[in-house]
Amino acid sequence: MEKYKTFFPRFVALLIDTFIMMPIVVFDDWFRKAEFPDVFFYFWIPLSSLVAPVYTILMHGFYGQTLGKMWMNVKVLDVSEKSMTMRQSFLRQLPQVIFNICVIVLSIMALPFDLQAPRVEQAIGIYSILLTVWGMADIFVFLSNEKKRALHDFIAGTVVVKTNI
Predict the structure, then answer these.
(1) Which of 5, 6, 34, 145 has the fewest CB atoms within 10 Å of its CB?
(2) What is the extent of the structural domain holding 140?
(3) What is the Cα Rg of the chain in Å?
(4) How far apart are CA 102 and CA 11, in angstroms?
(5) DSSP three-state, residue 114
(6) pLDDT tens by residue, 32-47
(7) Pairing of β 158-162 and β 74-78
(8) Model-level pTM?
(9) Per-residue pLDDT tens for 78-90?
(10) How many helices (H) and strands (E) in the chain?
(11) Is the C-alpha dihedral spanning 115, 116, 120, 121 positive or negative?
(12) Total domain count for the chain?
């Protein structure tokens, strides 16, 4: 069962992939400070919010790994431990896609970036609670089964294994 002990490699892979996506955050910050017209953000917000999930879906779908997972020697496979499909890759990422769509809606609601507006403040609070509950449930499920499958792995019928064993 050593091949399923992937918590640390998965966590570090997530940090690596987050670092890879950092230019999007830098551009986003620059665009907001440059005070582009609001209409620009109706295009930028969905684009920037969906880059990471699309990257993850495509990398997992084609290679079973993101660059972070490649570096950390872990791979996502079908639960039968054969290569996963693009459909499974999408299903595995579906919760994140849903959360990112919520970010898009909240961000557009906040234009012109008045995060103190009562409707936006309330929506951000609800979103934060849901994201926290999902994250805690994902970790709890991961820690409570032999193959260390998280909720998103159960949704997609996948498992993450070490590749260097």
Answers:
(1) 34
(2) 2-162
(3) 18
(4) 24
(5) coil
(6) 788 788 888 889 989 9
(7) antiparallel
(8) 0.89
(9) 999 999 999 999 9
(10) 7, 2
(11) positive
(12) 1
